[in-house]
Design brief:
This protein is mainly beta. The protein is built from 2 helices and 28 strands. The longest helix is centred in the last third of the chain and has 35 residues, at 316-350. 22% of the residues are buried.
Length: 351
């Protein structure tokens, strides 16, 4: 039983887990200490000593040009009653961190998901949640990233150089274990990586004006004598031909090689090269090769869909051709109509 003041409101100044429980109230007449109302229905109050922090997931993590990205924000406590806020991470080199910019229509949405249409560049996102009146807000989630223009390298050493019309740069690193950090060996706009297994990560540049570059996925292979997949580092245009091969450090092209697409064997007979005569969107994905029972690291091949490939009838040339044909058809119909009218007039005059 709580001895509350004689008011119609009971306020808990600093809530803790000890305040959790069922609450109900009843009123009492001022003129008589014995006349009271019935008890109200009870309400359950749950107070957690651990401040909830939302978890953000993004899908897909690897982008194709123009793809849609779905953000999902999950709160550990029951999600009922939460409103969600969606932000884009903007690099802040002076603070060695990022600021957050609210996404369009991303303030207090009822849905725990948010879709970004036409995403083309590397970007980072965070979310947070709020509920109650006055509204209580959780901390921001850890940032999550989507990457474009993914490339894979296997080498003894790699240097990444940021280029563009900016004076300040930093190179960010997202490791396989989910840790986000800065390049440890940064000289000017160049990051030097002496590749070890711990350097397997996604890298990208962030400018002083708050922009992201495309991303580079560096995969370090422990087996120095293992096979290496040779694949395109830039997106392949839909309809183009492409060849993938397998090599060793001591031998550039291997035969008797098996190729895999998204961990599925592409053919049962070993060969020297994997040739795709006309690339389609379904060919996009991770590839690897197998030689003498040893597998290469995976490499992502991105497929770029062109406007003409998607709908050639909507190209400017076709639009002009269709316009000329349409105008010509209208002129011919008007001439035929005029000739027909003239002929009919002459016939009527003779009768």
């Amino acid at each position: 039983m709580i001895k509350a003041p004689n008011q119609n409101e009971y306020r808990i100044r600093s809530a803790s887990s000890s305040n959790s429980g069922n609450y109900r109230c009843k009123g009492r007449m001022k003129s008589s200490q014995h006349k009271t109302t019935e008890w109200s229905d009870s309400v359950t109050l749950t107070v957690s000593d651990n401040e909830p922090r939302p978890v953000l997931t993004v899908s897909p993590s690897w982008l194709s040009p123009g793809a849609s990205v779905t953000l999902n924000c999950e709160v550990e406590l029951p999600s009922a009653g939460w409103s969600f806020y969606w932000y884009k991470a903007v690099p802040d080199l002076s603070e060695k961190s990022s600021s957050y910019e609210l996404l369009p229509d991303g303030s207090g949405t009822a849905q725990d998901s948010y879709i970004i249409h036409g995403q083309t560049h590397t970007a980072g996102y965070v979310c947070r949640a709020g509920r109650g009146d006055p509204e209580y807000h959780t901390d921001h989630s850890q940032p999550k990233f989507v990457w474009s223009a993914v490339q894979h390298f296997t080498s003894d050493s790699v240097s990444l150089t940021c280029e563009g019309n900016f004076t300040e740069w930093r190179v960010r690193k997202f490791s396989e274990d989910g840790r986000l950090s800065d390049c440890r060996r940064m000289t000017g706009s160049t990051c030097d990586i002496n590749t070890s297994k711990s350097d397997t990560a996604v890298y990208w540049c962030e400018s002083g004006s708050g922009e992201f570059s495309s991303a580079v996925n560096i995969t370090v292979q422990n087996d120095g004598d293992g096979p290496i997949l040779v694949s395109p580092v830039h997106p392949v245009t839909e309809g183009a031909s492409v060849s993938l091969s397998c090599s060793l450090r001591t031998q550039k092209i291997l035969s008797n090689v098996f190729f895999y697409h998204n961990d599925k064997l592409l053919q049962n007979d070993p060969r020297g090269e994997l040739k795709i005569s006309a690339v389609s969107k379904s060919d996009e994905g991770f590839y690897k090769c197998q030689y003498s029972g040893r597998e290469s690291a995976q490499s992502w091949m991105s497929v770029k869909v062109t406007v003409s490939g998607a709908d050639s009838s909507s190209s400017p040339v076709w639009l002009i051709v269709r316009l000329v044909c349409g105008v010509s058809l209208i002129i011919i119909l008007l001439l035929l109509l005029y000739r027909c009218t003239t002929t009919n007039s002459e016939t009527f005059s003779f009768t």
